[in-house]
Amino acid sequence: MSHQEPYVTGKNKLGELSDEELILQVQGGNNHAFDILVGRFKDRLYAYLFRLLGDKHEAEEFAQETFVKAYIHADKYRTVARFSTWLYTIATNLVRNRIRNIKRRPRTVSLWSADVGGAEGRWMELPDDSHRPDIDAERESLRDLIQNVIEKIPAKYRPSFVLREINGLSYEEIAAATGLKLGTVRSRINRGRTHFRKAIAPFLAQEYQRKGNQK
């Protein structure tokens, strides 16, 4: 690995560095810097992979493989891109290869989300009401609903849709992560939103009717 940045020691000092500065430290041979990056991104990366793969064990395995590849190929990172974009690029390519392989089998790739779509197709985090059993039950029901709806979005639209609506990446970052042209990214996100709205409409109508009958 190349020594592009002065070697920084001390977890406190390292913790103050940006993601991009940390990966440059990794390029310089500082393994502690990579530990901090793993700590920062492991939950987000796992959630992204879980949404795409729909399987906890596979998501964990793919997350580990993503970090291994990021460490082994750290010298290939260039500061023209954010570290998060580069990391999602590695993960997306792994998922893409997995999808190609399973297309030969009668199985669909599922997408899971713990978030809820707004009127404009944006996503909001559910509030943490862990001490409210009634809220927990309602939230669990909502998660099942979202999972069922997202599974109806064609698989090729899902990565772009998830990276934008859940992970909050810009169109340019998604294009870099997926290897797609900017226009294709916009198109796939819009198509994903359209499929989501169409699929969730019947469920929302049923829920509206249910609550109306409870009054």
Helix content class: 55-70%
The tally of structural domains comes to 2
Number of E-state strands: 2
> How would you sum up the major sheet?
2 strands, antiparallel
Looking at the structure, the CATH topology of the largest domain is Rna Polymerase Sigma Factor, Chain: A
Give the C-level CATH assignment of the largest domain: Mainly Alpha
Shape: elongated
Global Rg: 20 Å
* H/E topology pattern: HHHHHEEHHHH
Overall mean pLDDT stands at: 78
CATH 4th-level superfamily of the largest domain: RNA polymerase sigma factor, region 2, helix turn helix motif
**What structural class do the secondary elements suggest?**
mainly alpha
Low-confidence stretches: 104-131
Into which percentage range does the β-strand content fall?
under 5%
Trace the largest sheet across and list its strands: 1-2
**How many H/I helices?**
9
Straight-line N-to-C gap: 66 Å
Q: What is the annotated CATH architecture of the largest domain?
A: Orthogonal Bundle
